[in-house]
Amino acid sequence: MVFACIFVQIMASKILRKAGFLICVTLIYLSACKKTEPGDPKPYIEYRGFEQIKNSGGVDSAGVLHFYFLDGDGDLGLGPMDTFPPFNPGGAHYYNFIISMYEKQLGSWVKVVPQPPFPGGDTVGNSSRIPYLTPDGQIKTLEGDLFMDLFTNNPFSEWDTIKYECTIEDRALHRSNQISTPEIILQK
Fold first, then answer.
1. DSSP assignment string, 123-139
2. What is the pLDDT of residues 97-115, one digit of tens each?
3. pTM above 0.90, yes or no
4. In this predicted structure, what is the pLDDT of residue 117?
5. What are φ and ψ of residue 31, in 5° steps?
């Protein structure tokens, strides 16, 4: 009889320990999940990858930046008619995908100022406009992956190592966190 009582206590103790372990693992998992409050107005972005694209001559001429985005109130993107202030051409908020290119020059990162492709021409840069993405319905939280085509090979530069830093901006002019690519070595 004593043996049976001790066996029952040991088994109950093992079950409680297993249950306690499972509860702890579940709580750790739930607390580690990224949570966004409904209606959180500030967008969030996360770097996912970069793919280089070679032209027919084997030169790295372009690339595709892959990043995840999350916007709690879903006011991301601009439509074709969004050209009045503050989204007017030439204005500070015309582009909602803001990207800067850096070159590694003699061991230091130097921001590349876009140069015109020919005298009197437009400047060549990578900032662009994310199209209108607001979802229908009551739940406005918007998330997904974006792939942005980028110019990589600066013909005015002798340097072969670059990186990008970027942010996004929603229609309420809330700017996301900044992400950066790792260094990218170009075949010129």
1. P----B-PBP-PPSSS-
2. 999 999 999 999 999 887 6
3. no
4. 54
5. -75, -25
Give the number of other CB atoms < 10 A from CB of residue 156. 10
CA-wise closest residue to 127 among 155, 167, 154, 159: 167
3 Cβ contact partners less than 8 Å away, ≥ 6 residues apart: none
For residues 109 and 178, give the distance between their C-alpha atoms in angstroms, rounded to a whole number. Answer: 16
Tell me how far CA of residue 87 lies from CA of 76, 100, 165, 172, 187, in angstroms. 13, 19, 22, 11, 36
Q: Are 174 and 42 in contact (CB under 8 A)?
A: yes
**From CA 97, how far away is CA 114, in angstroms rounded?**
16
Residue with tokens 């027919």: 56
Show the beta-strand stretches assigned E in the chain. Answer: 44-54, 60-71, 97-105, 108-111, 142-151, 161-168, 179-180, 184-185
Mean residue pLDDT of the chain comes to 80
Query: Which of 9, 7, 8, 36 lies closest to 143 in space, CA to CA?
Result: 36
pLDDT recorded at residue 113: 82
